[in-house]
Amino acid sequence: MPLxxxxxxxxxxxxxxxxxxxxxxxxxxxxxxVADTSVTFLWVMRGDGAIILGIEEPWRFPGAFDPSVHDKxxxxxxxxxxxxxxxxxxxxxxxxxxxxxxxxxxxxxxxASDYAGFAYLGGELKYQDGHWVLSNESGRxxxxxxxxxxxxxxxxxxxxMQAAATRIDELLGLxxxxxxxx
Length: 182
Hints:
alpha+beta; six-stranded mixed β-sheet
């Protein structure tokens, strides 16, 4: 049962109003990736198969980005902090720049794809104990619930993780170890 792209089980309020503008499409722009070993990167394999990296609350980690995007980071900080009070008043738990903000994608015309928001898998990429580790630790795209209920297989998740790790190695030069979470 190969993985099919899926929509996230839930989307936080701020994720409805903004994609993560400092995402990195490693196929299109691998030079934008800065291998900052102090940062936990989020990753998704979008519905179109592209691997996208990003950082939740990226304004907290300016060293992970080229200075050319620092103004955009400041805009993001202002956007989320302005809305944080509203979300708290409404009793909504909110994040800022999570996995769903990396899953949107666009056609060459600039229009949102019919499949925007779908991803095969997602998780974290971080430097740990002297090496880069790729996990499926995502509450929205990590496939935890589907693994528990048997609607996807561990083999298919591991195969998809390995495909992502191979592309990261080829495009970014990072040797990546897998950390599967069932």
